[in-house]
Structures are given as C-alpha cells and as structure tokens.
Specification:
The protein is an alpha+beta fold and 208 residues long. It has one domain: 2-Layer Sandwich (D-amino Acid Aminotransferase, Chain A, domain 1), CATH 3.30.470. Helix content is 34%, strand content 28%. Strands 4, 5, 6, 7, 8, 9 and 10 form a 7-stranded antiparallel beta sheet that branches. About 4% of the residues have low confidence. The chain binds guanosine-5'-monophosphate.
Length: 208
C-alpha cells in the first residue's frame, strides 16, 4: 500500500481544490469498482490523502472524447462542441519533457510502454467501459462528460487496473442546460470560479 497525495500539474492558487478532487475521485472510484472496473483505490484517508495499492505505472495517458474541444479541435480543426459520431480513444505519451505527444500502437510497442498489442486493446476496452458507466451517470446529474484522461498501471499480479484520479482536473464537464464549463478549463481559460465549479460537481455527485 502507498499513500497518494493528490497533486496538480499546473498549480492554481485557489484553496481547497485538492480536497474536492480527492472526494470526487473517491466517489467515482467506488462507482467504477461497483460496476466491475478494477482500480487502485483502497480508501480515502483524509481530505488530501487517498490510500491506494502499489502499481507499475503504464506511461500512456488514455484520452476518451465524446465531444470535440481542446487539443482535438486545435489539432484537427474539428469545430469546438461537435458531438463525435463515436467515442474516440487516444493515447498520449506520459512524458512532460516531450510535452505528452500522441502515440499510435506501434509507438507504444517500440517504446516498450506495454509488452503486447493485447494490452493496448485492453486499455481501449477498459476506457470505453468506463465511459459507458460515467457518461450516463453524469448526464443524470445534468453534466455532459465531454472528455477525460485515464491512467492505468499493473498490480502485483500483472493485472491492468485504473489508477491516478478522476476529477475536474482531468475531465471536462459542461452543464447540459447552460453549457457552462465546470472543470479545469475555468482555470486554463481564465474564467474564474474554479473551486465553486468543482464544489458543484461534487454536490451533484452526492445528490445535494
Ligand atoms: P486535451 O488533449 O484536449 O488538452 O485534453 C483532453 C482531456 O484530457 C481533458 O479532459 C484534459 O483535462 C485531459 N488531459 C489531457 N492531458 C492531461 C494532463 O496531462 N493532465 C491532466 N490533468 N489532464 C489531462
């Protein structure tokens, strides 16, 4: 077992965000576990700490997209807000020094990020299963799950499990009625109200 302190890559000055992310991640890991997705989650210890099982991290960021925005719109010129004809799953290299570049399957194998093609297929399959659980869950709470980033690792038995966190830091949520952004884009785009938005996401998850 290891102690994970939730951290953010790009620091925002707003207080309390780590605790909100920890609570949101805890609820979502429990939801996914209850729906058959193996995760590293053990329990929330306190506001800023989550206990999780030790894994070997797979250095692939799995990006799942239902609606085009962000780098997909920038890189391929797909109009922001376009509902994709099917859920897109992409792989990025988890490598800050290289700026997390896009990967295809051959890159993953050449870089030995996984051993076998089967493992890449499994990452895609698990990412789609997670989307199939989370997308309707958030829709019921009035939020569009636009896109999100997942990370995976291998446990002691070599099984691939979901790791890291699932929060508005690595998911995009748009309010279904107003279109308002309820995620880290509020910080990235200088919109303000980041903590209030994260609190609203948590409250909707908790049914408040
Ligand atoms: P984009 O590629 O459009 O910038 O991001 C797609 C989705 O993945 C967004 O929900 C974004 O929050 C998440 N994402 C992509 N890369 C990262 C990353 O390095 N860190 C975090 N926290 N989220 C990421």
């Amino acid at each position: 077992m290891t102690l994970l302190r939730l951290t953010v890559k790009k620091k925002s000055s707003e207080a309390g965000k780590g605790a909100l992310n920890n609570k949101i991640s805890t609820e979502l890991f429990k939801l996914l576990e209850a729906n058959g997705i193996p995760t590293h989650f053990v329990k929330m210890l306190d506001d800023n700490h989550m206990l999780h099982t030790k894994v070997d991290v797979i250095l692939i960021e799995v990006i799942v997209r239902n609606i085009a925005t962000g780098s997909l719109s920038r890189n391929l010129g797909i109009e922001d807000g376009t509902v994709l004809p099917f859920t897109l799953v992409e792989f990025d290299y988890k490598n800050d020094a290289l700026g997390d570049p896009k990967l295809n399957d051959q890159h993953c194998l050449i870089l030995e990020l996984v051993e076998y093609q089967d493992e890449l297929d499994k990452l895609r399959r698990m990412a789609r299963q997670i989307n199939d659980i989370l997308k309707p869950y958030f829709a019921q709470k009035g939020l569009n799950l636009v896109d999100f980033k997942l990370e995976f690792g291998k446990d002691n038995n070599g099984n691939i499990i979901l790791i890291d966190e699932i929060s508005p830091d690595n998911c995009r949520f748009w309010d279904i009625e107003s279109g308002e952004k309820m995620d880290k884009d509020r910080f990235r785009q200088g919109l303000g109200g980041l903590t209030v938005a994260y609190e609203q996401v948590l409250n909707r998850i908790l049914g408040k």
